[in-house]
Amino acid sequence: MNDLQVSGVVKAYGQGATVLDGLDLTVPGGSLAAVLGPSGCGKTTLLRVIAGFLRADGGTVTVAGRALAGPRVHLPPERRRIGMVPQEGALFPHLSVARNIAFGLTGTHRKERGRRVDEMLDLVGLAGYGDRMPHELSGGQQQRVALARALAPEPDLVLLDEPFSALDSGLRGTVRAEVRAVLKASGATALLVTHDQQEALSTADVVAVLRDGRVAQCAAPDELYGRPADPWVAAFVGDAVFVTGTAEKNTATTSLGRIPLAAVPPGLREGLVLLRPEQLRLTDPASATAQATVTDVRFFGHDSMVTVAVDGQDEPIDIRTPGPLQVRPGGRVGLQVTGEATLHASRPRP
After folding, report:
1. Smaller CB count within 10 Å for the chain: N or C?
2. Which whole-number Å values give the CA distances from 247 to 244, 262, 344, in the listed order?
3. What sign does the dihedral 270-275-279-281 (CA atoms) show?
4. Which residue stretches of the chain have pLDDT < 50?
5. ∠227-221-31 over CA atoms, to 5°?
6. Triad 50, 193, 166: Cα angle to 5°
7. Containing H/E element for 261?
8. What secondary structure does DSSP assign to 222-253, as a single string?
9. Which residues contact 154 (CB under 8 A, 6 or more apart)?
10. Are 130 and 165 in contact (CB under 8 A)?
11. Is residue 348 a contact partner of residue 332, using CB atoms and an 8 Å limit?
């Protein structure tokens, strides 16, 4: 399989500006991985090192067991068997769709080249579009052509550099799903770089969160969201509710009542109990173990976010509930916790 293995990669710009600091990352063959992180964490630098546009200062990069970068090794981009899907597609405006897709098939017999282009058009759902020019396509169609161009030479790895950032929000979700389906159908190993948490969680098989030039956690989306490695990761990949608690076996005593714990770090008895806003339910305050006062309500259509001040707790917390609500600021509510929480030692750092 075409596994991607990044081991101990270091990259610095100038004196003291280390961007990648011994980064390790493994992407199993045939998987779609997302690299997620705040601005300046090294996402784009990692992509460019893997592609061969930048030379690593240390560490190794291998794909399908073939060394692309390492001590005394630096294959140029054209020899790495890597397909690239940049932002906004970057199609050649003077070439037809078919000729754009065929661009990387140099040295291929004309008949075979035409067959491969037709195969790629079928794969991305654009059969019959070969004679059209890029300006005649929608933004989503252009991205699919860019993906077809990247897949046409049958690369060992496909790199996607925030390929949906230029699309409007209504189109973005549809194109993401289409691109994921195409990659799965092709069996390609792919790495998606994005700053969008929802995009990473909904699209990828595994998500790597970068912090200060290293991978803070790499896991399946549900594990990353449900069992983050630390409070910083928890707060970065989604809305988080933190309450102090004392653990006893597999439960924690908090201002919200006793909460079951999915995991307790060895030796940790007191710390921060992490919940997600959708794990909290509004109930009748007379029958609830925790009471609160509503301080704010924000309606988003599909759900609402309710901020409450919990009796006996200094900091307000957020609760995500489906649809519109009858509660208003100043109203009294009860709180009920559903599901399991995780216990952590300290608050997320900035």
Report:
1. C
2. 10, 11, 11
3. positive
4. none
5. 135
6. 125
7. strand 257-263
8. HHHHHS-SSHHHHHHHS--EEEEEEEETTEEE
9. none
10. no
11. no
Output the furthest CA–CA distance in the chain (Å, rounded).
Answer: 78
Main-chain phi, psi angles of 84, to 5 degrees: -125, 130
Q: In this structure, what token pair is assigned to residue 176? A: 């993401």
What pLDDT, on the 0 to 100 scale, is given for residue 176?
A: 87
Structure tokens at 62: 């291998």
The reply to whether the predicted model has a pTM over 0.70 is yes
3-state secondary structure of 88: coil
Tokens of 97: 């769709």
Distance, CA of 270 to chain centre: 31
The DSSP-derived string for 186-234 is HT--EEEEES-HHHHHHH-SEEEEEETTEEEEEE-HHHHHHS-SSHHHH
Give the C-alpha distances (Å, rounded to integers) separating 103 from 83, 100, 108. Answer: 12, 5, 11
Q: Which two tokens stand for residue 216?
A: 């803070």
Question: Model confidence over 14-36: pLDDT tens digits?
Answer: 776 899 999 999 999 999 999 99
